[in-house]
Q: What sequence folds into this?
């Protein structure tokens, strides 16, 4: 998605977190997809003017809910590295069944992660549901987790829980299906 502004995240640190900030973020996410003509009709301003007014909100959208870039005992892999593991390691798609049905990596197993805990590195796994018993019995076998992309907390959490559960070759494709399709790789 093209952003209407290149305003940095530092320019929005003055916005406190809370319902008002969330509302502004949601407004931006809806507005950023409008065409220039639609902006003129709906808001009575040129796209550049609207971008100047709402630009800082794009940084809010970028900053919230992004997964960590790594986790203890988990190897973060690129989509190219994941593609090289096809047929050599099982892939687990942690998204909801409806998203799995819309398209998944060939051969991946649907293993929906029931997420109730917060989107944080120190999440409370007791609030979530994840059937670790569906993972391979051989805990030394490489396993690959993925979900939607850098905002895909379900795959992050599953990878962390697999490592905590004794799996020694946990791979996390952080870029998820977004990164996979961006590289031109097919989903089935």
A:
């Amino acid at each position: 998605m093209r952003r209407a502004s290149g305003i940095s995240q530092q320019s929005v640190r003055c916005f406190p977190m809370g319902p008002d900030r969330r509302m502004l973020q949601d407004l931006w996410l809806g507005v950023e997809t409008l065409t220039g003509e639609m902006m003129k009709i709906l808001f009575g301003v040129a796209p550049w003017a609207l971008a100047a007014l709402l630009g800082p909100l794009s940084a809010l959208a970028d900053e919230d809910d992004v997964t960590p870039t790594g986790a203890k005992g988990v190897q973060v892999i690129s989509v190219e590295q994941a593609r090289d593991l096809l047929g050599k390691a099982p892939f687990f798609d942690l998204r909801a069944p409806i998203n799995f049905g819309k398209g998944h990596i060939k051969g991946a197993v649907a293993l929906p992660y029931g997420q109730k805990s917060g989107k944080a590195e120190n999440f409370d796994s007791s609030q979530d549901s994840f059937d670790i018993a569906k993972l391979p019995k051989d805990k030394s076998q490489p396993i690959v987790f993925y979900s939607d992309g850098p905002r895909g907390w379900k795959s992050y959490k599953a990878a962390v829980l697999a490592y905590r559960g004794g799996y020694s070759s946990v791979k996390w494709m952080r870029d998820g299906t977004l990164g996979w399709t961006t590289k031109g790789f097919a989903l089935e």
